[in-house]
Specification:
Number of domains: 1
Largest sheet: none
Structural class: mainly alpha
Helix content: 40-55%
Number of strands: 0
Order of helices and strands: HHHHHHH
Oligomer: single chain
Number of helices: 7
Distance between the termini: 28 Å
Shape: globular
Strand content: under 5%
Length: 149
Amino acid sequence: MDTDSKQALYDRSNYILKSSVDAWQTTILTPLPGTGLYNRLKSENRILFTNYPEDWSKYDFSEPVIVPGLMTNSELSESMRDIWTKLYNRKTVRKQFRRSLWNLRNLKFAMWGYISNYNYYCLTFEEKIRSGDLRYSHWLVSEKAAGKP
C-alpha cells in the first residue's frame, strides 16, 4: 500500500509466516491507467513510467512504478525481494502445506495451497528463472540459496 513503511511490509510477511494462511500472493502496488489511484498519483507526479506501450512491461506488479510514500524505490524493491525469498522458499511453503493439511485434513485443499504458492514463486522470480540464474532455476531450498546470509 502507498502508506506502507518497510517495517509494515516485514510485519505483514511475518504475519503470513506465523498464521495458517494456505496460499498468499504478495505484490507491489501498481496503479493501472484509468483508475482513480493512477490519476491521483499522476497528478502528484509520482508515476514513474508513462511511455506506453513501451512501459507496459514494467506494470507486472513486481517492480515499483510509483514513488512510494514512505520509502525509496530501491528500499521497496529490496524489501519485497527479501520478503518474497522468505515467503516462497521451499522450506516455508512445505511448512505451510503441513500446517494446512493438519488444519484442513484434506489433501486436495492442502495441495491447492502448495501448488498456488509454487506458482506465485514462479511468477515472482520469472525473470531470474528465465535468465538461467542457478539460484532461481530450481525452487529455492532456503534464503541461503538465494544469496541471503
